[in-house]
């Protein structure tokens, strides 16, 4: 292997910024024809002009750029520019976005604008408890056959007891219409008498978005991402947002659904790349607690908590 080839290979192994130059001494004399010398008709290195290269130094080109993530589906809206930017109007409920500035009363001016903005501001905090369904029969061919196992029913009892022990006034339980989520809800609700239950197809299990990095053991068809992704995104937009301006007191809501749905919702709510949803793992009957403040800020209190279960009752099927 030539000395120059060894230098090029060494440069490829270095970590650096967007542009990397390595300068090393070589035996070539300045003014000699060839190797990109413009005086011999060769092409000058594209990275820097020839005048920037000191005599006796070889400039190596930068390493190729890292592969970027695949483009997100059209239903996912992302702020322009690079990461690290928090979109304060992520739920389209930022007060300034809810009023029509063209209709501002010219006579009262700023006072009128301030009054209208105050009228649109949320006052309460929403507490979202995302519960993954309990263990179920994996051998069931149809959804109606995928009922909870005896252990799954025990898990749901433990989850219900844990939620009741928090001493919170829960407003409602919204659950997926799939059998395992419905049965989990029925058991949990026994510990929370009087809390209304609402079933929805939006929270059914599915493939939200192609994960990055991909996994070899789970490869849905592209059409499944296309159909499920839009539905699960619709669930996020419908249920995960700051409180309505008319809501006076903090609310506590339970959502009983599925691991893929919960992981996607967490990524979207925190404005993390949604393609990373599969990097998280959730136990059966686990509790994930999201907090949405009146100003739109979101905090993750707990993720997949099953600390209230004995170790021999914990599963992840």
Low-confidence stretches: 5-48
Q: Overall 3D geometry?
A: globular
Terminus-to-terminus distance: 53 Å
Number of strands: 8
Q: How many individual helices? A: 7
Major sheet summary line: 6 strands, mixed
Helix content: 25-40%
- N-to-C SSE string, H for helix and E for strand: HEEHHEHEHEHEHEE
What fraction of the residues are assigned to beta strands by DSSP? 5-15%
Neighbour order of strands in the largest sheet: 5-4-6-3-7-8
Average residue-wise pLDDT: 81
Instruction: Report the structural category.
Output: alpha/beta
Radius of gyration: 28 Å
Provide a quick synopsis of the model:
With 317 residues, the chain is α/β, with parallel strands linked by helices.
Attribute tags:
six-stranded mixed sheet; two-stranded antiparallel sheet; 8 strands; 26% helix; globular
Protein architecture, described:
- It contains seven helices and eight strands.
- The chain has a six-stranded mixed β-sheet with strand order 5-4-6-3-7-8, with helices on both faces. Strands 1-2 form a two-stranded antiparallel ribbon.
- By secondary structure, it is an alpha/beta fold.
- Helix 4 (about 150-165) packs across helix 5.
- The model is unreliable at about 5-50 (pLDDT under 50).
- The longest helix is centred in the C-terminal third of the chain and has 18 residues, at about 220-240.
Please outline the helices and strands.
Layout: H1 3-12, E1 23-25, E2 57-59, H2 95-98, H3 110-120, E3 126-132, H4 150-165, E4 172-176, H5 179-189, E5 196-200, H6 222-239, E6 251-257, H7 259-269, E7 287-292, E8 298-305
Parallel strand pairs: 3-6, 4-5, 4-6
Antiparallel strand pairs: 1-2, 3-7, 7-8
Helix pairs in contact: 4-5
């Amino acid at each position: 292997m030539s000395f120059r080839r060894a230098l090029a290979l060494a440069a490829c192994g270095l970590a650096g910024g967007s542009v990397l130059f390595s300068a090393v001494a070589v035996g070539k004399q300045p003014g000699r024809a060839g190797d990109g010398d413009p005086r011999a008709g060769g092409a000058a290195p594209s990275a820097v002009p020839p005048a920037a290269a000191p005599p006796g130094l070889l400039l190596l080109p930068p390493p190729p750029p890292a592969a970027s993530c695949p483009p997100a589906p059209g239903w996912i809206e992302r702020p322009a520019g690079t990461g690290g930017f928090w979109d304060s109007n992520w739920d389209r409920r930022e007060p300034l976005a809810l009023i029509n500035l063209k209709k501002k009363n010219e006579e009262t001016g700023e006072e009128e604008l301030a009054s209208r903005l105050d009228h649109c501001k949320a006052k309460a905090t929403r507490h979202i408890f995302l519960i993954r369904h309990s263990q179920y029969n994996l051998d069931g061919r149809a959804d109606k056959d995928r009922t909870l196992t005896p252990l799954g029913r025990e898990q749901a009892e433990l989850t219900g007891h844990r939620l009741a022990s928090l001493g919170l006034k829960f407003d409602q339980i919204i659950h997926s219409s799939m059998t395992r989520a419905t049965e989990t809800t029925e058991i949990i609700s026994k510990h929370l008498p009087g809390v209304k239950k609402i079933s929805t197809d939006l929270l059914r299990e599915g493939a939200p978005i192609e994960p990055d990095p991909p996994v070899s053991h789970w490869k849905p068809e592209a059409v499944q991402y296309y159909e499920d992704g839009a539905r699960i995104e619709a669930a996020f937009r419908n249920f995960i947002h700051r409180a309505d301006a008319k809501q006076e007191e903090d609310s506590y809501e339970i959502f009983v659904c599925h691991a893929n749905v919960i992981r996607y919702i967490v990524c979207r709510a925190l404005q993390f790349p949604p393609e990373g949803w599969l990097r998280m793992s959730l136990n059966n009957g686990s509790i994930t607690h999201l907090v949405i403040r009146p100003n739109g800020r979101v905090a993750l209190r707990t993720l997949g908590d099953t600390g209230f279960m004995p170790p021999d009752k914990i599963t992840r099927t």
